[in-house]
Design goal:
- Helix content is 72%, strand content 1%.
- It is mainly α and 415 residues long.
- A two-stranded antiparallel ribbon has the order 1-2.
- It has helices at 13-24, 26-44, 49-56, 71-96, 103-129, 147-157, 163-187, 194-213, 217-234, 240-248, 261-285, 292-300, 302-329, 340-349, 355-364, 370-411; strands at 59-60, 69-70.
- It is globular.
């Protein structure tokens, strides 16, 4: 019997739970996303850049099933389906039990999300329409908000801000995700094959039955993989399978259980999404050249310009304009604890595109297009700029609220 201590051993059940809980934290997911992107940028701009390109282009999978994909494509089409499954679960919970269940509380962030998607798309289109070599097909790139990254920035820099702002950003980002999914499904489907799409929907229905009656992972995982494969073959982007499967999971808790299946599966799969799927996708998606020549090309490319203008200006402009018009023209009101300056700071946070923007960028331009690399670089730089600016604004607003709370406590007579 070997009693020698091991340097790296298997985690205990308690340690494994703590590790999974760490991965569920918004800050951890955002950090791993940044780490994946940073590794990609360093690798793609190092002397070993050819190795990065070779790894990204390595083909794996059976040709007979049209699944002979590169590792980069597996990360985009396969791993991101896990991310979208978690998004689907979150969306359904919000619609059944959360903010989206009540129109009175959901109307402001919903219309803010619509404005925050329309304005970036319009600004991108305008920038590219005014250029001789514009690339109009990238209009949807700046419409997305990275919910994990955005909430992490709000958590780090806006700790003293009213909790209503966090609810506003979460609801806005959830609606943003839903509309982004619709954009991907409608505008980035390629020659839909009706039989395969029907098979995907039939398998999703089978998943819905199994998840309610059995819940056995030995049945659910194969059905989920088959649904993904059929969706991939149908021409609809394969990640949509994750959303569809997420929507089939019931939200209400069964008798004798504290939480429903949607919350349970979100709890189980979020660490996989945050700790594996999204960072690996960032590793393969964010590897763009940042040489002086490449940056000069990015600055001069109308596609990159449209992305930057859309994320940095279009997002806050659309969110604030839609919210202002709603408040002025209807009986809707902001939460009493929220000021317009607070809302402006949060609207800048929404300019962090990252994950879904990178996905839409890959779908908008072919790998051989110069716009593809320039758009990716613009997404990364603009998202980091939005994070930095919003961090400053949120810190300022947090100090304002902290000072207001201090004055209030000083005015309260002691007993």
């Amino acid at each position: 019997m070997n009693d020698r201590p091991r340097t790296f051993g298997v985690l205990s059940p308690g340690g494994l739970r703590n590790f999974a809980d760490t991965l569920r934290a918004e800050n951890t997911g955002a950090l791993l996303l940044v780490v994946g992107a940073a590794v990609a940028l360093v690798w793609a701009n190092s002397p070993a850049r050819d190795g990065y390109a070779a790894l990204s282009g390595l083909v794996v999978g059976p040709h007979a099933l049209h699944l002979d994909l590169t590792l980069a494509q597996w990360a985009t089409d396969g791993l991101l389906a896990i991310f979208f499954f978690v998004v689907g679960l979150e969306l359904k919970r919000e619609m059944v039990e959360g903010q989206l269940r009540r129109p009175s509380t959901a109307i402001v962030p919903i219309l803010a999300a619509v404005g925050g998607m329309a304005a970036p798309a319009l600004l991108y289109t305008a920038v590219n329409a005014l250029s001789a070599d514009g690339a109009a097909q990238g209009w949807a790139i700046p419409v997305a908000t990275d919910i994990a990254f955005a909430v992490a920035v709000l958590t780090l820099f806006g700790r003293r801000l009213p909790t209503a702002l966090r609810a506003f950003l979460l609801t806005l980002a959830v609606v943003d995700d839903l509309l982004g999914i619709v954009v991907i499904a409608v505008f980035y489907s390629d020659g839909i094959a009706a039989l395969w799409l029907g098979a995907a929907l039939a398998l999703a229905a089978a998943f819905a039955v199994v998840v309610r009656r059995s819940g056995s992972p030995w049945l659910l995982v194969p059905v989920a993989v088959a649904t993904w494969g059929a969706m991939h073959a149908s021409g609809v982007h394969a990640t949509i399978a994750g959303v569809v499967l997420g929507f089939t999971v019931p939200v209400a808790a069964r008798a004798g259980r504290e939480r429903g299946l949607a919350e349970h599966y979100e709890h189980v799969w979020r660490p996989v999404s945050a700790g594996l799927a999204v960072p690996v996708f960032a590793l393969f998606a964010a590897g763009v050249s940042l040489s002086p020549e490449a940056l000069a090309g990015t600055v001069a490319d109308p596609a990159a310009q449209g992305v930057a203008v859309g994320l940095l200006l279009g997002k806050p402009l659309g969110i604030l304009t839609a919210t202002y018009l709603l408040v002025r023209l209807t009986r809707a009101n902001l939460d009493p604890s929220v000021r317009w300056a607070d809302l402006a700071a949060v609207s800048v946070v929404a300019g962090i595109g990252f994950t879904v923007s990178l996905l839409i960028g890959e779908l908008s331009f072919a790998e051989t297009s110069p716009h593809a690399e320039h758009a990716k670089a613009s997404i990364l730089l603009s998202s980091l700029a939005a994070a930095a600016v919003s961090g400053v604004l949120l810190t300022w607003r947090s100090r304002v609220h902290a000072a207001r709370q201090t004055r209030h406590l000083e005015q309260v007579p002691s007993v």
